Model the fold of this input.
Amino acid sequence: MKSLNAADRNQAFRSFLLFFIITIAVIIAAVFFSIQVPFKENDQLKEKIAVAEKQRDFTEHFVDKMETTIKLLDSVNLPNVRSELIDGAIDDNLKSMLAMTNNDTSTQIKNLYKNVVYNFYDLQGAKKQLREASGKDVNFGNLQAENANLHSQVQQVNNQLQQYVSLLANCQQQK
Done:
């Protein structure tokens, strides 16, 4: 004996089976994507950390070279010092600093670093003029004022560099 509602029961069973399969597919998809998204975010964060560490290392190396150059510039006009040798060391440091800024394409504040190097070149030129003028009857006070002005510019650029470095670090920490 066949039941009267067999067709309705078969239709209800097919509907149940269809919705059951759809529900299982949605649950599996949700689990799959909840696992995959954190892995992708991890990879992105690791890339950002690597870029930040590279920039930090570059900045530390640049600042070390900059401090060495400042010490050399401060000692180049001292009495009983071979200024030609010190000028050569200053030139070497400045060339390596400029090469560092040209080679590193990931630095976001590349122009600031270049400006620091160019200011050092200007300061070195002013120091050379000061040495040349010390043996002549040139207005020594003007050259000292220019030297002090350039030194203050270097200090301002150093302060800006430190501000940009801290700003860059803050931005990267917020990301």
In short: The two ends are 72 Å apart (CA to CA). Residues 49-174 form one domain. The helical segments are 6-75, 83-103, 110-134, 140-174.
